[in-house]
Write a structure and sequence with these properties.
Elements: H1 2-15, H2 19-33, H3 46-62, H4 66-79, H5 89-105, H6 111-133, E1 141-151, E2 155-162, E3 174-178, E4 187-191, E5 202-207, H7 214-221, E6 228-231, E7 247-253, H8 257-268, E8 276-282, H9 291-300, E9 304-310, E10 319-320, H10 323-326, E11 336-341, H11 344-356, E12 364-366
Cofactor: heme b; FAD
Catalytic activity: 2 nitric oxide + NADPH + 2 O2 = 2 nitrate + NADP(+) + H(+); 2 nitric oxide + NADH + 2 O2 = 2 nitrate + NAD(+) + H(+)
Protein name: nitric oxide dioxygenase
């Protein structure tokens, strides 16, 4: 497995600088091999190409960790049921992926890399097919939007409830979400911002980037109570281990507070002995939209502390600087279970800070929505 992981990472370096070409060639080859697959995907493929790259990157990062590798791929197989992917489609996708990698890498590709990707893809397809086959839930859930609240120009919090079947998930996980009224067959991943509850209500925090993000833009600016959206199977391993006795560190940036909020909510139901330290960072005080709700929880739960910080607000009375810098002023964190959520840049810098603090990697959980 170590040699396989080395070959995958080594060969990925050859193509990662030309990702758009890699993804475009993959889908062009896929649809040429099986034209009927085109109808499963959206008319505009921009965001779909991003999803492919995220899946490849996460697979590469987890291949050296068999347990995490298997868990991620089983979840991915369940998630791909929303596209109506059948077991026979995986063979075609494997051919298209190898062709795309060879083309993007050019003359630097060799037989060792080719065999490594063949072996890796065989394992990937097997685990994804098994994950889909073992899932007795529907491929996606129809859900009604219950509430919708704007926070500034680009952020919204909304709640929804699946209409028929209960959506089973754990605090800290995320789901793919589609807004069929505005962007059919375009799916985007979002963390669930609350712990499971008797009412089967799910909360989401969404921020739309400037000039991008079709689904996010619709969720922030166009969706209103009463509309229907679709939710796919829950994914992600940023979940609590109830058997652990270690204290907990949560580091969140911007809307990355969503899964952290869900984790804290779950802890309020049973935790009595583990100290929980939440560091919540944003650019300005106005961006700390979830701070008041977190601070209110500290009143009834003395084991919880919340430390906010701003990186670009000199008038803010709390901690100043990037949240990854702020956690270095506290700690050490070597005896903690650590959870990190935010932008790819924020997660990357926080992981570096925890590594410098010599926190064991087995005690760190995060979910990758981009290249780390």
């Amino acid at each position: 497995m170590d040699n396989l992981a080395r070959l995958l990472k080594e060969s990925w370096i050859l193509v990662e600088g030309d990702r758009d070409r890699l993804a475009s060639y993959f889908y062009a080859r896929l649809f040429l091999l099986d034209p009927e697959l085109r109808q499963l995907f959206p008319a505009q493929m921009n965001e779909q190409r991003d999803r492919l790259l995220e899946a490849i990157i996460t697979s590469i990062h987890t291949v050296g960790d068999p347990e995490r590798f298997g868990e991620f791929l089983r979840d991915l197989g369940r998630d791909h049921r929303k596209y109506h992917v059948a077991p026979e489609h995986y063979h075609t996708m494997g051919i298209a992926l190898l062709d795309a990698l060879r083309t993007a890498a050019g003359g630097q590709w060799n037989l060792e890399y080719d065999q490594a990707w063949r072996d890796a893809y065989a394992a990937i397809a097997q685990k994804m097919i098994a994950g889909a086959a073992d899932d007795g839930n529907p491929p996606f859930w129809h859900a009604e939007v219950l509430t919708h609240e704007r926070h500034g120009r680009d952020t919204a919090i909304f709640t929804c409830r699946p209409l028929q079947h209960r959506l089973p998930y754990r605090a800290g996980q995320y789901v793919s979400l589609e807004v069929p009224r505005y962007h059919p067959r375009v799916w985007r991943t979002y963390s669930i911002a609350n712990a499971p509850n008797d009412g089967n209500v799910l909360e989401f925090h969404v921020r739309t980037p400037t000039g991008a993000g079709w689904v996010s833009g619709a969720l922030v600016r166009r969706v209103s109570p009463g509309e229907l959206i679709r939710l796919a199977a829950p994914m992600g391993s940023m979940t609590l281990d109830r058997t652990s006795t270690r204290d907990i560190l949560c580091v969140a940036g911007g809307v990355g507070i969503a899964p952290v909020k869900a984790l804290v909510e779950e802890l309020t139901g049973w935790n009595r002995t583990r100290w929980v330290h939440v560091f919540y960072g944003a650019r300005t005080a106005a961006d700390l939209y979830g701070l008041a709700e977190l601070e209110a929880l500290t009143v009834d739960h003395p084991w919880l502390s919340v430390t906010p910080s701003c990186s670009d607000d000199p008038d803010f009375e709390g901690e100043q600087g990037d949240v990854s810098e702020v956690i270095n002023r506290y700690g050490p964190w070597t005896t903690h279970d650590c959870f990190v959520s935010g932008s790819a840049a924020m997660v990357r810098s926080t992981l570096r800070a925890l590594a410098q603090d010599e926190v064991p990697t087995a005690q760190i959980r995060y979910d990758t929505f981009g290249d780390l």
